[in-house]
Amino acid sequence: MGALPREVCHVQELVKVKVDDPERLPDLMAALLTRIDAVATQTAPNELEVSLLGSRNAVADVAELEQRIRRWGEGAHLER
User: Fold this and answer.
1) Domains and CATH numbers, the chain
2) What is the per-residue pLDDT for 2?
3) Which residues contact residue 8 at a Cβ distance below 8 angstroms, ignoring those fewer than 6 apart?
4) CA–CA dist 72, 70 (Å, integer)
């Protein structure tokens, strides 16, 4: 499963997610994309731009994304 182009869907909030080890980025991206509401694009060797589709507001999107990253494991953080 790949990322959808941004123009295909309404994006509420793009959040930058950085990983400490660029070799782990594909694993994080795959983990995030297992959920149908996630759109993720790699923007740098250690960075993704992620948005969550749905009716949540931006604050709820960020909180949900933080939870998903925490469940994924150590070594990733949101950049605001």
Assistant:
1) 11-79 (3.30.70)
2) 60
3) none
4) 5
Rounded to an integer, what distance in angstroms lies between the CA atom of residue 60 and that of residue 30? 22
In order of 9, 10, 20, 37, 59, the CA distances from 56 in angstroms are 15, 13, 28, 11, 8
Sheet of 76-79: strand order equals 38-44, 47-52, 15-19, 76-79
The sign one gets for the Cα dihedral 9, 40, 62, 46 is negative
The 10s digit of each residue's pLDDT in 12-65 is 678 999 999 999 999 999 999 999 999 999 999 999 999 999 888 889 999 999
